[in-house]
Amino acid sequence: MEALERTKDEESKKFKSHKINIDFSILVRIKELMVDVSSSCMELALKEKRNASAKENQESKPEGRKKGSAKMLWKAFQFAFRVYTFAGGHDDRADKLTRELAHEIETNPNQ
């Protein structure tokens, strides 16, 4: 994607010479949609963690499930970071969710 963005003017001329119109603004839309997907994943991971914590308070939960929940949070955080790098940033929603996710990971380091 980055290479295409750097060469899009040159590539656009090549495509136009073959009578092919390419709208490179689609690249921006792809990045925006990836940030939305990342935000949804973070929301889902946080929701699952909260549901697991609520169940844990009601009954004793095996240690393996706690580690699985922490692993899910960490994977969601890693995905958010990759999307952040790919898209060149986050929107306000993704930024808030990333902070919330990081806080949840930091406050439960033993899990």
Number of helices: 4
Q: What is the subunit organization of this protein?
A: single chain
Give the uncertain stretches in residue-range form.
none
State which percent range the strand residues make up.
under 5%
Mean pLDDT: 86
Integer-rounded radius of gyration: 20 Å
Q: What structural class do you assign from the helix and strand content?
A: mainly alpha
Fraction of helical residues: over 70%
Number of strands: 0
Shape: rod-shaped
Biggest sheet, in brief?
A: none
Distance between the termini: 37 Å
Order of helices and strands: HHHH
Task: Describe the protein in words.
The protein has 111 residues and is mainly α. It has a domain at 32-107. It is 82% helix and 0% strand. Helix 2 (25-58) runs parallel beside helix 4. The radius of gyration is 20 Å and the shape is rod-shaped. The chain starts with a helix and ends with a helix. The mean pLDDT is 86. Residues 49-68 are annotated as: Disordered. Keywords: Coiled coil. InterPro entries: CHUP1/IPGA1-like. Residues 49-66 have a biased composition (Basic and acidic residues).
Question: In a few lines, what is going on in this structure?
Answer:
By secondary structure, the protein is mainly α. The chain has helices at residues 2-17, 25-58, 63-87, 92-107.
